[in-house]
Amino acid sequence: LRRFDLAWEYGPCTGITRLQRWERAQALGLSPPKRVRDALLEHGDNPDVTYRWVQPPQ
């Protein structure tokens, strides 16, 4: 999921869930990885999966 978060070719990720970003990329014909969608649907009730990865402060 982190690789998907950091991949600029799928567009910005601010203010939307990972699944919304995946669906937008798919609608635009950008061919996002199907395994990302599968993971998001399988773990959709887990906020650590639903929302993008953020580097914790150090």
Give a verbal description of the structure.
The protein has 58 residues and is mainly alpha-helical. It has one domain (2-50). The chain has four helices and no strands. The chain has helices spanning 2-6, 18-27, 34-42, 47-50. The chain is globular and about 35 Å long. It starts with a helix and ends in an 8-residue tail after the last helix. The model has no long low-confidence stretch (mean pLDDT 89).
Briefly, what is this?
It contains four helices and no strands. With 58 residues, the protein is mainly alpha-helical. The chain has one domain.
Count of separate structural domains: 1
Poorly predicted runs: none
H/E element order: HHHH
- Taken as a percent bin, the fraction of beta residues is under 5%
How far is the N terminus from the C terminus? 21 Å
Q: Mean pLDDT, as a whole number?
A: 89
Number of β-strand runs: 0
| SSE class | mainly alpha
Alpha-carbon Rg, integer: 11 Å
Task: Assign a percent range to the helix content.
Answer: 40-55%
Give the CA-based shape: globular
Write the layout of secondary structure elements.
Layout (H helix, E strand, L loop, with lengths): L1 H5 L11 H10 L6 H9 L4 H4 L8
Helix pairs in contact: 2-3
Quickly list its features.
58 residues; mainly alpha
